[in-house]
């Protein structure tokens, strides 16, 4: 009695893949492999996350703590947004720091905004449970939500990489490290 192969179930895209476009910023501020991912929704809201190749997401790293305290006078936790025009939101430039991640091995990583706009919210859940940043970086482990100016919403992707371009850079990095070893 021969068994028929079961038809493969169609792959259902995740919520992130369905509603967001992934953009990447490689080597942020000139630091190798410190890549960030920007998830852009059709309503122009951008969710800032870590790209899969970021050192924090590599095996063996343990996050000790995360801080939204950027300087003595600036804390992203003090961001209070209200009203239709998002009054009170902190304005961010592309290189504005969002948070600092401290690892148990002594490494420290500063996560930048990568897009210009108003800071809508920061993810306070990663303060209490830093491991979700590593376990679910594109969903529950996001870093912040930024709303670009309407006039700039089309131009924010200039200087950012598409998923395909980013994957090519990662492959080149892997080939370069295997060629040197």
Q: Quick one: overall form?
A: globular
Structural class of the helices, strands and pairings? Answer: alpha+beta
Strand order of the largest sheet: 1-2-3-11-10-7
Number of helices: 4
Mean pLDDT: 86
Determine the fraction of residues in helical runs and give it as a percent range. Answer: 10-25%
**What is the CA-atom radius of gyration, in angstroms?**
18 Å
Q: In words, what does this structure look like?
A:
- Helix content is 18%, strand content 28%.
- The protein has four helices and eleven strands.
- The chain is an alpha+beta fold and 181 residues long.
In a few lines, what is going on in this structure?
Helices cover 18% and strands 28% of the residues. It is an alpha+beta fold and 181 residues long. The longest helix has 18 residues, at 163-180.
Which descriptors would you attach to this protein?
actin filament binding; 181 residues; Abitram; nucleus; three-stranded antiparallel sheet; cell projection; alpha+beta; 28% strand
Helices, strands, pairings?
Blueprint: H1 15-19, E1 20-25, E2 36-41, E3 46-50, E4 63-67, E5 69-71, E6 74-75, E7 91-92, E8 97-103, E9 108-112, E10 117-122, H2 125-128, H3 131-135, E11 144-147, H4 163-180
Antiparallel strand pairs: 1-2, 2-3, 3-11, 4-8, 5-6, 7-10, 8-9, 10-11
